[in-house]
């Protein structure tokens, strides 16, 4: 697989179409443009919620619930980006919707409870002063939420690229959370970058960056995918 995820088409005489930088760049740009459009459609509920709600701590649980459609959308995008296309095969949208229909239910079996748990955590963080708990409790909740999100990102990649039962995906995601700390750190860095970008700009920005997020998630999960292939499918 090339860095661009695009395979040139080879003629019978051995010459290739699309082996140049401009041709590959055009195909990659097209694929990401199509992914942007189809992911915006998938994330329309989240986008609507992000634009309507004000930046108020009391709205944090609702904003977290906007992550619900992000799970299937990211998993479908990861599946598309993980499989290279020939330059003449530009069916990115069709590949995306096929992966979305195939994996959405499996993703939501784990992603929906995760999002519900994160909503509870953010509600607790928004009302720490009312609860009267020690200050360190808030820090502990933030750590739990971060670890849960990293675990959730592992489940998205595993579900998108492998065929395991939900409980096996959950176990694998937890096992690899500690087995590959560098991968977990990359996922965490991505989350921190997204959170910082959202805070400094707009709640809509993560939705607009969704294809890039999927690409970074796939790239940072390379060792995770290798471990699963060698240890559990070998």
From TrEMBL:
Keywords: Membrane, Transmembrane, Transmembrane helix. The chain crosses the membrane at residues 32-53, 59-83, 104-123, 135-162, 183-201. It comes from the Bacteria. This is DUF624 domain-containing protein. It comes from Sanguibacter inulinus.
């Amino acid at each position: 697989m090339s860095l661009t995820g695009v395979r040139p088409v080879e003629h019978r005489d051995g010459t290739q179409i699309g082996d140049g930088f401009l041709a590959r760049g055009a195909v990659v740009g097209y694929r990401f443009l199509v992914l942007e459009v189809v992911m915006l459609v998938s994330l329309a509920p989240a986008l609507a919620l992000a634009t309507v709600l004000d930046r108020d701590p009391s709205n944090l649980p609702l904003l977290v619930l906007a992550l619900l459609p992000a799970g299937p959308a990211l998993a479908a995008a990861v599946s598309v980006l993980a499989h290279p296309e020939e330059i003449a095969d530009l069916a990115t949208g069709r590949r995306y919707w096929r992966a979305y229909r195939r994996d959405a239910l499996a993703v939501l079996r784990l992603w929906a409870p995760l999002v519900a748990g994160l909503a509870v955590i953010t509600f607790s963080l928004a009302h720490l002063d009312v609860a009267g708990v020690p200050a360190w409790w808030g820090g502990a909740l933030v750590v739990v939420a971060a670890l849960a999100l990293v675990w959730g990102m592992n489940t998205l990649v595993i579900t998108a690229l492998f065929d395991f039962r939900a409980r096996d995906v959950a176990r694998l995601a937890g096992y690899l959370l500690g087995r590959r700390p560098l991968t977990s750190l990359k996922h965490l860095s991505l989350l921190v970058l997204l959170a910082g970008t959202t805070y400094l700009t707009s709640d809509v920005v993560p939705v607009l960056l969704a294809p890039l997020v999927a690409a970074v998630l796939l790239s940072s999960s390379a060792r995770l995918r290798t471990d699963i292939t060698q240890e559990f499918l070998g």
